[in-house]
Every structure is written in C-alpha cells, then in structure tokens.
Amino acid sequence: MAASETAKDSALRHAFGNVLSFFILVLIGVLAFSIRLFSVIKYESVIHEFDPYFNYRVTQFLTKNGIYDFWNWFDDRTWYPLGRVIGGTVYPGLTLTAGTLWWILNSLNIPLSVETVCVFTAPIFSSIAAWATYLLTKEVKGTGAGLTAAALLAMVPSYISRSVAGSYDNEAVAIFALIFTFYLYIKTLNTGSLFYATLNSIAYFYMVCSWGGYTFIINLIPMHVLLCIVTGRYSSRLYIAYAPLVVLGTLLASLVPVVGFNAVLTSEHFASFLVFIIIHVVALAYHIKGMLSPSMFKVAVTLVVSVGLVICCAVVAVLVALVASSPTKGWSGRSLSLLDPTYASKYIPIIASVSEHQPPTWPSYFMDINVLAFLVPAGIIACFLPLSDASSFVVLYIVTSVYFSGVMVRLMLVLAPAACIMSGIALSEAFAVFTRSIKFQLPSLSGDSQVDAGNSDSGSAATTQTEAVKADKIEESAKERPSRKNKKKEKETVEKPSVKSRIEKRLLVLPLESSVIALLLLVLLGAFYVVHCVWAAAEAYSAPSIVLTSHSHDGLHVFDDFREAYAWLSHNTEVDDKVASWWDYGYQTTAMANRTVIVDNNTWNNTHIATVGTAMSSPEKAAWEIFDSLDVKYVLVVFGGLVGYPSDDINKFLWMVRIGGGVFPHIKEPDYLRDGQYRIDSQATPTMLNCLMYKLSYYRFVETDGKAFDRVRQTEIGKKHFKLTHFEEVFTTHHWMVRIYKLKPPKNRIRGKTKKSKS
After folding, report:
1. Which of 76, 70, 68, 159 is nearest to 122 (CA)?
2. Beta pairing class for 555-559 and 738-743
3. Ramachandran assignment for 551, one of left (phi > 0), alpha (psi -120 to 50 degrees), beta (any other)
4. Mean pLDDT of the chain
5. How many CA atoms does the CB half-sphere of 428 hold within 13 Å?
6. How far apart are CA 263 and CA 259, in angstroms?
7. Which of 563, 611, 547, 447 is closest to 166 using CA atoms?
8. What are the φ/ψ torsions at residue 579 (nearest 5 degrees)?
9. C-alpha span between 74 and 51 (Å, rounded)
10. Secondary structure of 652-667 in HEC code, one letter for each residue
C-alpha cells in the first residue's frame, strides 16, 4: 500500500509539474511577443531599417502574383541597367513564411494587410524561438534549466534588436530555425532516432532557406562530431545524428536557388564532407572490431586506416584543385572576414563599410546580453558536471559564437541564444543547490528530526571524510568510458550512481544564511536584467530608422523626412525616372517611392557601386557625365548637419572614396584628407570642397543660420557660397535631412557649333 501511494504521489507531482511548465511556457511566449511591441505602441505599425523594405516588397509581389511568378521574377527597378533576378538571389524563407501566414489568415476570413503580417512576423517567431530554446536546454540539463533559458531569451536585448515589431529581416525567422536545428540534433544524439534525424535535415533546410548564416550550423555540428570521435565518445547515435544531416541536408540545401551547387562547391561546406568520411572510417573500424579477434583486428585497422588516408588525400587533392583557381580559395568575402578580421578592410571595402560588420566594443556586450556575460562561465562549468555529448555541444556552441561575435557585431545575434542557454543552466544549478540547502536545514530549525538526507553537521568529521573518499572513487569509476570489454564492470556499477547522488547532496549543503542571501542576490540580479531588457526594448531598439525622434526641453520632436522625400519622388517624378543615391537607400527608394535605382542594399556588383561612389567623389561636371551615362534623372543625398543626424552621407563619404578608388584608380583617398584628417571646414582640401557630395550636401546651407555651422561635425563648413552648374535643387525636406537634385539637360551642341561656324 505504501509503495502504491508513493507511486501515485510521484505521478501526481509529475503531472502537476508538466501542467505548470506548460503555463510558464505560455507566459514566456506572451512575454516574448509583447516586449517587442513598443515600436508599434510608441510610433506606428511601420517597417523598420533598410533591408526589411525589400523583403516587404518581395512579399507583396508573392501574395499578389503567386509563387511561380516569384521564382521567375526579374526586377528591372533595381541595379539599372542590369536588373536583378529576385528568385535566384534571395533567401526565400522569410518571404514564404510571411506569405503563408497571410494566406492562412485570409483563408480564415481575418483580413489583415501584407504589411501588418510582415510587421508582426518577428515577434511571433520570437515566442516560438523561446520555446525552441526550452526544448534544447531541456535535452541538455533538464526542465528547470530549459524554462530559465527560455525566459532569458524572450527578453535578451541582442535578440530584441533584430526582432522588434517591424523588423522584417531574415534573422526574424532564422534564429528560431538555428535553435530548432540544434535541438533536433541533440534530440537525435540522445535518442538515436532516425525520425528525429530526418526532422533535423528538414529544419536545416528551412534554415538554409532563411539566412546565409546556415554555414554556422554545417560547420559547428561537424566540429562537435569530430570532438566526440577524438575524445572516444563515438556511438551509433552519433552516426545517426550526423550522416543523414549531411546527405539529406545537402540535397535539400541545393534545391534553394540562391545556394544551388554552392552546397558542394564552396569551402564553407567542405568540413562537413571531410568529417563525413572520417565518421564512416571510424564506424567501419568499430564494426570490424566486433567481428574479428584482437590480432586480426590490428591488421584490419591498419588496412582501414591506410585506405581511409588514401581516400582523404584524394578528396583533399580534388578540393584543392577545385578551389585553387579562385582568388579567395572558394571562400566568400564575408566568411574570409570572419576568419581574418582584417581581410575586408584590406580587400573588400564594401563589406567593411557596413556598420554591422564592424567589431563590437566591450560596452556593447553589456548592452546586448547584460548580466548573462557573467553567468556564462558558471554555465560552462555546470556543463562539465557531468560532461555529456549534449553538454559538450553547447560548450562548443558558446565558444565559437563568442569568437564570431567578437569579429562582427551582427553576430552578437548568434551569441545571444548560447548565452541564454548557459545562463539558464547556471541559474538552474545555483537555485537547485541553494534551495536544497535550505530544504535540508529547515526541519532542524523547527526542532523536528532530520530528513533522509540529513545535515553534514550531525555526522562526525571522520564519517564525512570517508564518504567523500568513497564518492571520489565512485566518480573515478563512472568517468571511465564503458566498452564491450568491460561490460561486467559496467553491470557492477549500475547501483553506484544513486549512492553517489545521495553523498553529493550531503556534501553540497551550504549554510542556511549563505543560501538565503545568495537566493536574494540571484533574484536581484534577475530583476536588474528584466529592467535593463525592458528599457532596451522600449528606448534603444524600438525607434524605426525611417522615423526619427529627439527629446528636448520643449518636448518630443519627430523627424519624418525620409517618408516625406519618398512621397515627393512618388508624386512628382515620372514612373520611369532613375534615382541615384548611395546604396544604403536603394531598398527604401524602390519600395516607398516606386522608382528605379542604380544601386541598392544587395551590394552584389562592386563595380556598379564604385561607379556611384566615383560620381559622388568627382567634380560636378565629371559627376554629371557619369550619371548621364547611367540615364539618371535625380540624385538623392542624406544630410544631417542641420539637425545633428550622424548617419548622413558626409560621414559615409570616405567609404564612397575607398570603394570608388578600388575600381577607378584616379580616385585617391589622400586627396580628400588634410594631414591624414577628414575635414570639411576651411582646412579641407580643394578636392574635397569641389566634389559633388560636398556641394549637394552644403548647397544653400549658409542660408539656415548665416554661419553654415555643421552640428554633426561641430564646425563651420569651408566653402559656404557657391552655385551649381550641372544640377538644380528640386526638393529639400523640412529638416534638411534629405535633399533631391535634378540633372540639368545638356546644352544644345548643334546650335553652338552653328554659331561658331557663322562667326
């Protein structure tokens, strides 16, 4: 009877725990969704940043014309006169996901616009990513750690920065795909199920469709497999987890048009194929070992290793031959900039010019992951107690993500889930130790007899020391890797872990006062984290870049100049007119003004961008000739000198010079610098004062305050009074943030020649 009652109580507690976990996960999902709505509440439901406008435009085309037209869409409004094949150059995961959501909602008679669905796609998938984090961490360290990690991910500022309402970028769904792929890999590793291995390949396929960061997955998992093989942790479960992923995942990845045969031809994927060969050699060795005698096994191993080395050498030789012809040895520019942080600044300035490709500063770590940076080391230590295949994977994940985040600030987004997982494990283990210590000591305070675990103070020191020695011996025996030769030893030590766990519970009892104080400190730490995350979501990452605000003594000021300029272009120019600007504003111009642009944020053609940079860096007449050859009718520049907007074209101008000079050698950066300094005041060089960008930015600027004082550069400009000969100003926004100029028509050369001949 007692045993049955105990079993019922245990089942009841288990059921209650599952129900409680479910409701906690629902609350975490609500939290992850609602904390990302500050941008909609404070501003309006609008698409943010630059790239999301292209994704929104593509989603509009998909929902209007269907998927077949989407795959075959040639966009003639971008990269004039080249154009762009959208279906073959875009990662379709985000677009297909949002389009599917819109179709489902409209099928249910919920008439939401495409823009509304795009705005709220990122918050929805943030909730799903939090649940995926719970599943992943649960496979590593249990339910408590999973719930804690999910709650941390729901609020982490680094993830919020890329998933607020309106941030309709690839990372909105890619982070979920990343975490879910890792979860299915760990699940397959723990269970050895071919079903989960197949799901893992499908999840990897969705990741490939969503983001170019899928190469992180196809390199991290082979690194973990190789680590397990080297450390003697090979098993059939490891083979099942990895082999189907490489075969089926690569086949599926090659179906994505933007990837295609790059899935087998580029260097980013070669590590997975090499480890694929190695794991088959190891599997063959283990298979032969069970069939042969020890003497024959040595001969067979020698043969297998020899054949394996020959195959590996042949594969390496083929790979070397394939990539030797490429100047980058088969690596993409972004991958090389990760492996060599100085590569982009030396050879590809277009990559180095992007702000999110710069290395982060130390304060950015505290801003983006806050207190998690201090909890990660504790989580790594907890993963080694004890070390398993799953815990070794998350340790490898955090180590690699820390390195990549230190190279490129954009990859702080990849670090955030790993930091949340490690911090969740650390907090869960810490709470377990402290609450267990309080639980064991509370009965002694009330005068009752001690519970089963007892307190270490009641026993003698000699007994405790003896138990500690026994625990060490048990731990040493448990650390030995079981093999087929010592199955008897494995059977003998089946009952020892329970003894070990009881002894560890005795030894890990802390003083009551210390446990209570530590719990209070952890709660305060969590409260500080929540306050920081809410502040980051409400203030730092909620403002859309298309609408700017500033606070002053007379209240809130809203700067809506970008939409004002795009609306003017849409209503006052011809449909076929071409607009030239720096590539940052290409997506917005195409999506909001519906006008053809010369370059945009895709940055696939460095020569075309260098042509625009050369025009901006040239004198007015030479720039007019370049733009006229491209059939440009309007030139758009962004200027922040009047209101103090720092991300204007004058601050980006040196990158235009560097990119243009990389293709056209007559553009030299030293010509625009005075003693190595970039200046726009009276000490600026004549080349700088006469270039097109300077003139278009500061034309009539002296009329604003009489001094022409630039609030961004904090100085008066050098050349205040000048006239334009080949361009005319047609529109300047209210705060002078966007200025639009029109190319003057060429002079009538025939009339000029006639007059000259008559004279």
Report:
1. 159
2. unpaired
3. beta
4. 84
5. 27
6. 6
7. 547
8. -115, 130
9. 18
10. HHHHHHHHHHHHCCCC
pLDDT category at 499 given cuts 50, 70, 90 is low
The helix/strand count (H/E) of the chain reads as 36, 13
Residue 44: what residue type? E
Are 546 and 47 contacting, i.e. CB atoms less than 8 angstroms apart? yes
Bridge partners (DSSP) listed for residue 673? 678
What does the longest C-alpha to C-alpha distance in the chain come to? 124
Contacts of 68 (CB under 8 A, 6+ apart): none
Q: Which two tokens stand for residue 737?
A: 């943030």
CB atoms within 10 A of CB 268: 19
What is the structure's pLDDT at 746? 82
Count of other CB atoms within 10 angstroms of residue 513: 9
pTM for the full predicted model? 0.85
CA–CA gap between residue 645 and residue 710 (Å, rounded): 10
CA 638 to chain centre: 28
Question: What does the pLDDT read at residue 570?
Answer: 94
CA distances from 204 to 36, 180, 249, 389 (A): 26, 9, 6, 20
36 burial level (CB within 10 Å; 0-12, 13-18, 19+): buried
> Residue 745 and residue 283: Cα distance in Å, rounded?
74
CA dist 371 and 262 (Å) reads 40
pLDDT tens, residue by residue, 254-278: 999 999 998 888 888 888 998 998 8
